[in-house]
Amino acid sequence: MGDSNISAFPLHRRRKLVEGIARVLESKNGEDANAFWRSTAKQILFQLSESGIAPGLAEQEVGALLHAVLGDMAARSAAKFAQ
Questions:
Q1: Distance between the two ends of the chain, CA-based, in angstroms?
Q2: How many CB atoms lie under 10 A from the CB of residue 37?
Q3: Does the pLDDT value for residue 8 go beyond 80?
Q4: What is the DSSP string of 29-79?
Q5: d(CA 30, CA 51)
Q6: Is the separation of the CB atoms in 57 and 40 below 8 Å?
Q7: What is the pLDDT, as a whole number, of residue 66?
């Protein structure tokens, strides 16, 4: 089966998804945080693959999601610091 041209709504624009992952990551440290992210990324990659998203595009989506999550965490941290 060849790669598909299907495109999903960008993961990094799904605010509830981004904020939910960011909140969980903020509650974890070190290896626990790494393990949570790896498990989440693997699960999302599997879901995208099952939906017919090409592997390269799925990996780009998960990478953009990670950047959005880290950005959300940084913004929340800066807001707390500013208070």
A1: 54
A2: 17
A3: no
A4: -HHHHHHHHHHHHHHHHHHHHHTT--HHHHHHHHHHHHHHHHHHHHHHHHH
A5: 32
A6: no
A7: 97
Find out whether 71 and 64 touch, Cβ atoms under 8 Å.
Answer: no
Q: What is the mean pLDDT of residues 43-70?
A: 94
Q: What number is the average pLDDT over the span 24-42?
A: 97
Sign, CA dihedral 18-16-3-37, equals positive
Using CB atoms within 10 Å of the CB of residue 57, give its burial: 0 to 12 exposed, 13 to 18 middle, 19+ buried.
middle
pTM here is: 0.85
Tokens of 49: 């693959």
**Phi first, then psi: what are they for 7, rounded to 5°?**
-125, 135
Q: Which of 75, 74, 29 is nearest to 37 (CA)?
A: 29
